[in-house]
Amino acid sequence: MDIFEKISANFGPLGKYSQEAFGYFMFPKLEGELGPRMNFLGKEKLNWSINNYLGLANHPEVRRVDAEAAKEWGLAYPMGARMMSGHTKYHEQLERELAAFEKKEDAFLLNYGYQGMVSIIDSLVDRKDVIVYDSEAHACIIDGCRLHFGKRYVYPHNNIENLEKELTRAEKLTSQTGGGILLITEGVYGMSGDLGKLKEIVALKKKFNFRILVDDAHGFGTMGATGRGTSEHLGVMDDIDLYFGTFAKTMAGIGGFVASNKVIIDYLRYNLRSQIYAKALPMAMVIGSLKRLELVQTETGLRENLWKIVAKLQNGLKEKGFDIGNTESPVTPVFFQGGVPEAMQITFDLRENFNIFCSIVSYPVIPKGLIMLRLIPTAVHSFEDVDYTIDAFSKIKKNLDEGKYSSGEMVNAQDFM
Prior knowledge:
The structure is a single chain. The protein has 417 residues and is of the alpha/beta class. The protein has two domains: 3-54 and 300-416, Aspartate Aminotransferase, domain 1, CATH 3.90.1150.10; 72-298, 3-Layer(aba) Sandwich (Aspartate Aminotransferase, domain 2). The protein has 16 helices and 14 strands. Helix 4 (60-73) packs antiparallel against helix 13. The longest helix is centred in the C-terminal third of the chain and has 20 residues, at 300-319. The two termini are 37 Å apart.
């Protein structure tokens, strides 16, 4: 069969809705200043759908430094990959400050978090090694595991008993191959908001020989007494072998980093293909990230206000009988019963009749029969925003319970654009 014919016949589980969904349910255009209120199709919406936890995207100091850096350096400098011609003292400074913040010996910048994680996994293991990872791992972890030529074992989400079984299997195999074991977990799971069981995983080191890689994209800057992440929150910072964070969430930027001991970071610096063969993080983003990291550490009121909003939102939803799963982080999922048609109608009702914009998730991202509205609270939301949203969700739930979204018909986004 011709490859293009095969693709035309099967757009995939999400792509099959492309005609009905494009521009509204998928690939929507949010416009205006980044914040709790943005414009969608010409109308202002209360926005719960951007990863701007501390509100740094429009912080006046961040905007000032970003503008000055762009004016001084442009958006092209430095040209080339770090190893060849894209290395600067500011890249080194940011790495030193990130390492110090995470209490690691060294850190290495990544031009993008997703491809950085893929490349980290690829460079750490060879065919003799075994990867053990959580079943709800982020797509970048899954893609990194797919590149692995050796064995990989998956354990059910946060199931420590099953993890022990997989580690037993892995040790048996590596005793024959002479390889090692890399265990990959997330600090905060970005869809459900629950935490990886880092304490329990660390405790297993007394019984098994493995190294831990933690993807803490949603935990960096939000979790822990000083924002150092989920490992700080759970009291196991010193026991995490490799800590991975991104700038796309709390830092409201682009890029990421990995922190570990100096030997491992030196190894990664010379072996991460996604960094060796790709352009370095632009100077404007490096300078901007230095200011963002400074504010994460000094503007503690931002994190405090974030958690006030989180507490009011999550407690208010639970008091009204909503199922928000097992979240222990700012990520706030709200679960309903239903399928894709109901999901589209609920989303349309929220956006058009309540002027609320939030992400909606359905199968295949979550199990069939469930709809999840994912709210991302930020330090710049207000208590009034929370009260209004909980009231709107109560009305949506009443409509759902009364069958008002159960016509089985798909809402066609093109009819409203």
